[in-house]
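Bug #2210: C-alpha coordinate dump truncated for DNA polymerase IV?
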Amino acid sequence: MQDLIPIRKIIHVDMDAFYASVEQLDNPALRGKPIAVGGSETRGVVAAASYEARKFGVRSAISGVMAKKNCPELLFIQPRFERYKQISSKIQKIFYEYTDLVEPLSLDEAYLDVTVNKKGNPSATLLAREIRERIFDEVGLTASAGISVNKFVAKIASDYNKPNGQKTVNPEEVVSFLEELAIRKFHGVGKVTTEKMYQLGIFTGLDLKNKSLDFLEKHFGKSGNFYYNVVRGIHNSEVRSNRITKSVAAEHTFDVNLSSEIFMMEKLESIANALEKRLKKHTVAGKTITLKIKYSDFSQQTRSKTMPYFISDKILLLEIVSELLYQERMKDSVRLLGISVSNLNTEQKKFVVVQLKFDF
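Reproduced locally. Full output below:
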Protein backbone atom coordinates (compact mmCIF):
# COMPACT_ATOMS: atom_id res chain seq x y z
CA MET A 1 0.00 0.00 0.00
CA GLN A 2 1.32 3.43 -0.95
CA ASP A 3 2.05 5.76 1.98
CA LEU A 4 -0.16 8.80 2.27
CA ILE A 5 1.46 12.21 2.11
CA PRO A 6 1.55 13.43 5.73
CA ILE A 7 -0.85 16.27 6.47
CA ARG A 8 0.53 19.19 8.41
CA LYS A 9 -1.16 22.45 9.34
CA ILE A 10 1.17 25.27 8.33
CA ILE A 11 0.57 29.00 8.65
CA HIS A 12 2.75 31.50 6.81
CA VAL A 13 2.42 34.95 8.40
CA ASP A 14 3.65 37.87 6.31
CA MET A 15 3.54 41.42 7.67
CA ASP A 16 2.09 44.01 5.29
CA ALA A 17 4.73 46.45 3.95
CA PHE A 18 6.51 45.95 7.26
CA TYR A 19 9.27 48.60 7.29
CA ALA A 20 7.00 51.25 5.77
CA SER A 21 4.13 50.32 8.08
CA VAL A 22 6.36 50.68 11.15
CA GLU A 23 7.36 54.17 9.99
CA GLN A 24 3.71 55.12 9.49
CA LEU A 25 2.85 53.63 12.88
CA ASP A 26 5.49 55.72 14.65
CA ASN A 27 4.86 58.89 12.65
CA PRO A 28 1.13 59.57 12.05
CA ALA A 29 2.07 62.36 9.59
CA LEU A 30 3.24 59.65 7.17
CA ARG A 31 -0.01 57.69 7.21
CA GLY A 32 -1.83 57.60 3.89
CA LYS A 33 1.22 58.96 2.07
CA PRO A 34 3.51 57.22 -0.43
CA ILE A 35 6.77 56.48 1.36
CA ALA A 36 9.89 54.51 0.55
CA VAL A 37 12.22 53.15 3.22
CA GLY A 38 15.82 53.32 2.06
CA GLY A 39 17.38 55.02 -0.93
CA SER A 40 16.96 58.63 -1.97
CA GLU A 41 15.80 60.53 -5.03
CA THR A 42 19.38 60.68 -6.34
CA ARG A 43 20.82 57.26 -5.43
CA GLY A 44 20.43 54.08 -3.36
CA VAL A 45 17.89 51.29 -3.50
CA VAL A 46 14.41 51.11 -1.98
CA ALA A 47 14.18 48.53 0.83
CA ALA A 48 10.40 48.74 1.24
CA ALA A 49 7.45 50.80 0.01
CA SER A 50 4.08 51.64 1.50
CA TYR A 51 0.96 50.47 -0.32
CA GLU A 52 0.28 54.09 -1.28
CA ALA A 53 3.64 54.09 -3.10
CA ARG A 54 3.15 50.66 -4.65
CA LYS A 55 0.20 52.00 -6.64
CA PHE A 56 2.78 53.99 -8.61
CA GLY A 57 5.06 51.03 -9.25
CA VAL A 58 7.40 51.75 -6.35
CA ARG A 59 8.67 48.49 -4.86
CA SER A 60 11.67 47.05 -3.05
CA ALA A 61 14.95 46.65 -4.94
CA ILE A 62 14.33 49.43 -7.48
CA SER A 63 16.59 52.46 -7.50
CA GLY A 64 15.60 55.61 -5.63
CA VAL A 65 15.88 57.55 -8.90
CA MET A 66 13.35 55.27 -10.63
CA ALA A 67 11.07 55.30 -7.58
CA LYS A 68 10.96 59.12 -7.57
CA LYS A 69 10.32 59.15 -11.30
CA ASN A 70 7.38 56.79 -10.87
CA CYS A 71 6.00 58.73 -7.91
CA PRO A 72 7.06 62.43 -7.73
CA GLU A 73 5.30 62.81 -4.34
CA LEU A 74 7.30 59.95 -2.82
CA LEU A 75 8.83 60.54 0.62
CA PHE A 76 12.13 58.80 1.41
CA ILE A 77 12.65 57.56 4.97
CA GLN A 78 15.96 56.27 6.31
CA PRO A 79 15.61 52.74 7.70
CA ARG A 80 15.71 52.11 11.46
CA PHE A 81 16.57 48.42 11.72
CA GLU A 82 16.81 48.38 15.50
CA ARG A 83 13.21 49.56 15.67
CA TYR A 84 12.12 46.93 13.14
CA LYS A 85 13.87 44.22 15.19
CA GLN A 86 12.11 45.48 18.31
CA ILE A 87 8.68 45.23 16.65
CA SER A 88 9.56 41.86 15.12
CA SER A 89 10.42 40.48 18.57
CA LYS A 90 6.97 41.46 19.86
CA ILE A 91 5.33 39.69 16.93
CA GLN A 92 7.40 36.54 17.37
CA LYS A 93 6.50 36.48 21.05
CA ILE A 94 2.86 36.17 19.97
CA PHE A 95 3.75 33.29 17.62
CA TYR A 96 5.37 31.32 20.40
CA GLU A 97 2.20 31.49 22.47
CA TYR A 98 0.66 29.20 19.85
CA THR A 99 3.50 26.82 18.95
CA ASP A 100 7.20 26.25 19.50
CA LEU A 101 7.57 25.29 15.84
CA VAL A 102 8.21 28.79 14.51
CA GLU A 103 10.61 29.35 11.61
CA PRO A 104 11.35 33.06 11.05
CA LEU A 105 12.38 33.80 7.45
CA SER A 106 13.12 37.47 8.12
CA LEU A 107 11.95 40.24 10.43
CA ASP A 108 8.55 40.34 8.74
CA GLU A 109 7.58 36.75 7.96
CA ALA A 110 7.56 33.30 9.53
CA TYR A 111 6.19 29.79 9.21
CA LEU A 112 4.23 28.25 12.09
CA ASP A 113 3.43 24.56 12.37
CA VAL A 114 0.16 24.41 14.33
CA THR A 115 -0.59 20.72 13.66
CA VAL A 116 -0.31 20.35 17.41
CA ASN A 117 -0.63 23.73 19.14
CA LYS A 118 -0.65 25.21 22.62
CA LYS A 119 -4.24 26.43 22.29
CA GLY A 120 -5.62 22.98 21.50
CA ASN A 121 -7.49 24.48 18.55
CA PRO A 122 -7.90 22.05 15.62
CA SER A 123 -8.59 24.88 13.14
CA ALA A 124 -5.46 26.42 11.60
CA THR A 125 -7.71 28.94 9.85
CA LEU A 126 -9.14 30.24 13.13
CA LEU A 127 -5.69 30.29 14.72
CA ALA A 128 -4.32 32.40 11.85
CA ARG A 129 -7.18 34.86 12.22
CA GLU A 130 -6.62 35.08 15.98
CA ILE A 131 -2.87 35.62 15.54
CA ARG A 132 -3.47 38.42 13.00
CA GLU A 133 -5.99 40.09 15.30
CA ARG A 134 -3.56 39.96 18.21
CA ILE A 135 -0.75 41.47 16.12
CA PHE A 136 -3.06 44.34 15.20
CA ASP A 137 -4.36 44.87 18.76
CA GLU A 138 -0.99 44.55 20.53
CA VAL A 139 1.43 45.95 17.94
CA GLY A 140 -0.75 48.14 15.74
CA LEU A 141 0.20 46.56 12.39
CA THR A 142 -1.67 44.38 9.92
CA ALA A 143 -0.51 40.98 8.73
CA SER A 144 -1.62 38.55 6.05
CA ALA A 145 -1.56 34.77 6.30
CA GLY A 146 -1.62 31.67 4.17
CA ILE A 147 -2.79 28.35 5.62
CA SER A 148 -2.24 24.96 4.03
CA VAL A 149 -0.69 21.51 4.28
CA ASN A 150 2.90 22.55 3.53
CA LYS A 151 5.21 25.54 3.53
CA PHE A 152 5.21 25.95 -0.26
CA VAL A 153 1.44 26.35 -0.61
CA ALA A 154 1.08 28.38 2.60
CA LYS A 155 3.59 30.95 1.37
CA ILE A 156 1.81 31.36 -1.95
CA ALA A 157 -1.56 31.62 -0.19
CA SER A 158 -0.37 34.40 2.15
CA ASP A 159 0.02 36.70 -0.85
CA TYR A 160 -3.50 36.05 -2.12
CA ASN A 161 -5.56 38.48 -0.02
CA LYS A 162 -2.95 41.09 0.88
CA PRO A 163 -3.04 43.40 2.68
CA ASN A 164 -4.70 42.38 5.94
CA GLY A 165 -6.25 39.15 4.70
CA GLN A 166 -5.76 35.42 4.69
CA LYS A 167 -6.43 32.40 2.51
CA THR A 168 -6.76 28.74 3.41
CA VAL A 169 -6.01 26.02 0.88
CA ASN A 170 -7.49 22.81 2.29
CA PRO A 171 -5.86 19.43 1.60
CA GLU A 172 -8.39 18.44 -1.06
CA GLU A 173 -7.97 21.82 -2.82
CA VAL A 174 -4.17 21.88 -3.09
CA VAL A 175 -3.73 20.23 -6.48
CA SER A 176 -6.50 22.21 -8.21
CA PHE A 177 -5.24 25.43 -6.58
CA LEU A 178 -1.76 24.85 -7.99
CA GLU A 179 -3.05 23.77 -11.41
CA GLU A 180 -4.88 27.08 -11.85
CA LEU A 181 -2.01 29.20 -10.53
CA ALA A 182 0.03 31.35 -12.92
CA ILE A 183 3.54 29.94 -13.07
CA ARG A 184 5.06 33.32 -12.16
CA LYS A 185 3.32 33.07 -8.77
CA PHE A 186 5.03 29.82 -7.85
CA HIS A 187 7.39 30.43 -4.95
CA GLY A 188 10.94 29.80 -6.14
CA VAL A 189 10.21 30.53 -9.81
CA GLY A 190 12.00 33.81 -10.48
CA LYS A 191 11.89 36.16 -13.43
CA VAL A 192 14.51 34.30 -15.49
CA THR A 193 12.94 30.88 -14.86
CA THR A 194 9.48 32.27 -15.64
CA GLU A 195 10.67 33.46 -19.05
CA LYS A 196 12.26 30.07 -19.72
CA MET A 197 9.04 28.29 -18.77
CA TYR A 198 7.04 30.59 -21.05
CA GLN A 199 9.33 29.60 -23.92
CA LEU A 200 8.61 25.94 -23.13
CA GLY A 201 4.85 26.53 -23.13
CA ILE A 202 4.47 26.46 -19.35
CA PHE A 203 2.15 29.26 -18.23
CA THR A 204 0.16 27.65 -15.41
CA GLY A 205 0.55 24.95 -12.82
CA LEU A 206 -1.42 22.58 -15.04
CA ASP A 207 1.03 23.17 -17.89
CA LEU A 208 3.85 22.34 -15.48
CA LYS A 209 2.07 19.23 -14.22
CA ASN A 210 1.68 17.95 -17.78
CA LYS A 211 5.46 17.89 -18.27
CA SER A 212 7.32 14.69 -17.45
CA LEU A 213 10.04 14.45 -14.82
CA ASP A 214 12.60 13.71 -17.56
CA PHE A 215 11.54 16.83 -19.46
CA LEU A 216 11.81 19.06 -16.38
CA GLU A 217 15.18 17.66 -15.31
CA LYS A 218 16.49 18.07 -18.87
CA HIS A 219 15.58 21.76 -18.93
CA PHE A 220 15.95 22.74 -15.25
CA GLY A 221 18.48 20.29 -13.81
CA LYS A 222 18.03 19.42 -10.14
CA SER A 223 15.24 21.99 -9.84
CA GLY A 224 13.19 19.88 -12.26
CA ASN A 225 12.49 17.34 -9.53
CA PHE A 226 11.38 20.13 -7.19
CA TYR A 227 8.95 21.55 -9.80
CA TYR A 228 7.61 18.08 -10.59
CA ASN A 229 6.75 17.45 -6.94
CA VAL A 230 5.48 20.80 -5.70
CA VAL A 231 2.89 21.14 -8.47
CA ARG A 232 1.49 17.84 -7.18
CA GLY A 233 1.32 19.23 -3.64
CA ILE A 234 4.39 17.31 -2.48
CA HIS A 235 6.69 19.43 -0.33
CA ASN A 236 7.75 17.74 2.90
CA SER A 237 10.12 20.37 4.30
CA GLU A 238 9.28 20.72 7.98
CA VAL A 239 9.08 23.96 9.96
CA ARG A 240 12.45 24.31 11.64
CA SER A 241 12.38 26.25 14.86
CA ASN A 242 16.18 26.58 14.91
CA ARG A 243 16.94 27.87 11.45
CA ILE A 244 20.62 27.41 10.64
CA THR A 245 22.47 30.60 9.68
CA LYS A 246 24.36 29.99 6.44
CA SER A 247 26.15 33.32 6.15
CA VAL A 248 26.63 36.64 7.92
CA ALA A 249 27.21 39.85 5.99
CA ALA A 250 27.53 43.63 6.20
CA GLU A 251 27.52 46.15 3.37
CA HIS A 252 27.21 49.86 2.68
CA THR A 253 25.99 52.01 -0.21
CA PHE A 254 27.96 55.26 -0.55
CA ASP A 255 26.60 58.76 -1.13
CA VAL A 256 29.50 59.43 -3.48
CA ASN A 257 30.97 56.75 -5.75
CA LEU A 258 34.48 55.60 -4.86
CA SER A 259 37.20 55.32 -7.47
CA SER A 260 40.27 54.78 -5.32
CA GLU A 261 41.14 51.47 -3.62
CA ILE A 262 42.65 53.45 -0.74
CA PHE A 263 39.29 55.06 0.03
CA MET A 264 37.60 51.68 -0.43
CA MET A 265 39.84 50.10 2.21
CA GLU A 266 38.86 52.83 4.66
CA LYS A 267 35.19 51.98 4.10
CA LEU A 268 35.85 48.24 4.24
CA GLU A 269 37.46 48.67 7.66
CA SER A 270 34.20 50.10 8.97
CA ILE A 271 32.21 47.31 7.28
CA ALA A 272 34.53 44.65 8.74
CA ASN A 273 34.05 46.15 12.19
CA ALA A 274 30.25 45.86 11.85
CA LEU A 275 30.58 42.32 10.52
CA GLU A 276 32.80 41.26 13.43
CA LYS A 277 30.11 42.44 15.85
CA ARG A 278 27.46 40.43 14.01
CA LEU A 279 29.61 37.30 13.96
CA LYS A 280 30.22 37.59 17.71
CA LYS A 281 26.54 38.20 18.35
CA HIS A 282 25.67 34.96 16.55
CA THR A 283 28.76 33.23 18.04
CA VAL A 284 29.83 31.97 14.63
CA ALA A 285 32.93 32.07 12.42
CA GLY A 286 33.45 31.07 8.80
CA LYS A 287 36.03 29.85 6.34
CA THR A 288 34.82 31.58 3.16
CA ILE A 289 35.20 35.37 2.88
CA THR A 290 33.42 37.15 0.02
CA LEU A 291 33.89 40.72 -1.15
CA LYS A 292 30.85 42.18 -2.87
CA ILE A 293 31.35 45.08 -5.29
CA LYS A 294 28.55 47.01 -6.98
CA TYR A 295 29.68 49.48 -9.64
CA SER A 296 28.17 52.81 -10.63
CA ASP A 297 26.38 51.12 -13.57
CA PHE A 298 24.70 48.75 -11.02
CA SER A 299 26.63 45.72 -12.30
CA GLN A 300 27.84 43.48 -9.49
CA GLN A 301 30.92 41.38 -8.84
CA THR A 302 31.96 39.03 -6.04
CA ARG A 303 35.43 37.78 -5.14
CA SER A 304 35.86 34.97 -2.62
CA LYS A 305 38.57 33.10 -0.77
CA THR A 306 38.23 30.02 1.43
CA MET A 307 40.65 29.57 4.31
CA PRO A 308 41.65 26.32 6.06
CA TYR A 309 40.45 27.74 9.40
CA PHE A 310 37.45 29.65 10.78
CA ILE A 311 37.59 33.45 10.95
CA SER A 312 35.59 36.04 12.87
CA ASP A 313 38.26 38.62 13.75
CA LYS A 314 38.09 41.89 11.81
CA ILE A 315 41.88 42.09 11.41
CA LEU A 316 41.98 38.73 9.64
CA LEU A 317 38.90 39.68 7.67
CA LEU A 318 40.58 42.85 6.44
CA GLU A 319 43.73 41.00 5.41
CA ILE A 320 41.73 38.71 3.15
CA VAL A 321 39.44 41.48 1.90
CA SER A 322 42.47 43.60 1.01
CA GLU A 323 43.86 40.72 -1.03
CA LEU A 324 40.51 40.32 -2.80
CA LEU A 325 40.21 44.05 -3.44
CA TYR A 326 43.59 44.28 -5.16
CA GLN A 327 43.09 40.97 -6.97
CA GLU A 328 42.22 42.85 -10.17
CA ARG A 329 41.65 46.42 -11.24
CA MET A 330 38.24 48.00 -10.81
CA LYS A 331 36.32 48.34 -14.05
CA ASP A 332 34.43 51.45 -12.88
CA SER A 333 33.73 53.59 -9.82
CA VAL A 334 32.07 51.77 -6.92
CA ARG A 335 28.74 52.59 -5.25
CA LEU A 336 28.51 49.67 -2.79
CA LEU A 337 30.91 47.40 -0.91
CA GLY A 338 30.06 44.42 1.24
CA ILE A 339 31.75 41.58 3.10
CA SER A 340 30.15 38.23 3.89
CA VAL A 341 31.36 35.20 5.81
CA SER A 342 29.99 31.76 4.89
CA ASN A 343 30.95 28.11 5.29
CA LEU A 344 30.20 28.64 8.97
CA ASN A 345 31.05 26.49 11.97
CA THR A 346 27.38 25.86 12.75
CA GLU A 347 26.36 22.25 13.05
CA GLN A 348 23.18 21.00 11.43
CA LYS A 349 20.78 19.97 14.12
CA LYS A 350 18.47 17.00 13.90
CA PHE A 351 14.75 17.61 14.05
CA VAL A 352 12.09 15.13 15.01
CA VAL A 353 8.61 16.04 13.80
CA VAL A 354 5.51 14.07 14.68
CA GLN A 355 3.23 14.16 11.64
CA LEU A 356 -0.44 13.68 12.36
CA LYS A 357 -3.52 13.73 10.18
CA PHE A 358 -6.89 15.04 11.21
CA ASP A 359 -9.54 17.55 10.09
CA PHE A 360 -8.09 20.75 8.70
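Output looks complete on our side. The mean pLDDT is 90. Marking as cannot-reproduce; reopen if the truncation happens again.
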